[in-house]
Amino acid sequence: MPDTVRIAAVDMGSNTTRLVVADVHRADDGTLTHDVVLRRSTVTRLAEGVDRRGILLPEPITRVRNALVEFRRLAREHGAVFVLATATSAVRDADNGEAFLGEVEHGFGFRAQLLDGTEEAEATWAGVTSDPATAARAAVAHGLLVDVGGGSTEVVLTEHGRITDRHSFQLGSVRLTERFLADAGDPPSADAIEAARASVRAELVDRFEHPGAVELPIAVAGTATTVSAILVGRAEYAPELVHGYRFTAAQLEDVIARLAGMPLEQRRGVVGLEPARAGVIVGGLLVLAEVLAHFGIDEVETSEFDILDGIALMAGRIALDEGIDEMPQPFGRTVC
Questions:
Q1: pLDDT of 173-191, one tens digit each?
Q2: How many CB atoms lie within 10 A of CB 79?
Q3: Domains plus CATH for the chain?
Q4: Exposed/middle/buried for 210, CB within 10 Å: 0-12, 13-18, 19+?
Q5: Exposed e or buried b for every residue in 112-133, given b needs 16+ CB within 10 A?
Q6: Of 119, 120, 118, 125, the residue nearest 139 (C-alpha)
Q7: What are the residues whose beta carbons fall under 8 Å from the beta carbon of 260, sequence distance 6 or more?
Q8: Residue 332 pLDDT > 70, yes or no?
């Protein structure tokens, strides 16, 4: 049985669609590790309108399809023999979510899988701890992992490297923006921002009424890494600087005040902020700030390892277990 396979993993998130091509290795004890060959990301905002309409809309679907066309080409060019494409909050909440996943399998020849909130949290933790240095620190600490996505936010509590509690909140950068900020002026009003914060606080108190002490707080995904990128101040995104970067709750509040006080067009020009993310970044930052406040966290670090790395490990296990050695051809053109 082969012990190494080159796979591709696709995360069809609520705000971004991302690709990683990686070599996944299986040790004699069954442990999986991976070496990244290529990463790509594009803002597709699949969750646009889902909170209000309950379906995936045609334009977001088209944006994701266009990204998948490019990602399939890159996966083939780099020798991947299997592609696992996962979906999360936006597809979970959409009445046409299953049909969308079927079209992804039919039109691209990918294996498509919908992750529930628990699976999403576990895959994210597996991805974060695929970094050996992080795994070593997590093994001796009480940890908290927060993943602010477009449609949902995952909070994971850990002890000595193992998950002890987890929850997926129906809170995210796209969802909070559509609920509270989209029609609140440009820039959004202070009342709208406070209403958004209050909604997040209420859900956190309801689920984690008595938060314990946290020794190792880690934040992943675009909202958190954008804060680090803005504070780093590089015109081009520098993952080697963002990974492990630490910022304080006070610095986060400063970034919120700065961005929330700008009109959207001016926000698009902020160094470190991807222009396509400018319309929803404030909503995501409010979620992150309230999570830190609720758990009494003064400083958090960002990780470049996240759910996409966890999906890569899942893809590698499937390909190795099933002996997959060639990427299948699509069954036909997608019509979704």
A1: 988 998 999 888 899 999 9
A2: 13
A3: 4-117+308-322 (3.30.420.40), 132-304 (3.30.420.150)
A4: exposed
A5: bbbbebebbbbbbbbbbbbbee
A6: 125
A7: 187, 188, 193, 282
A8: no
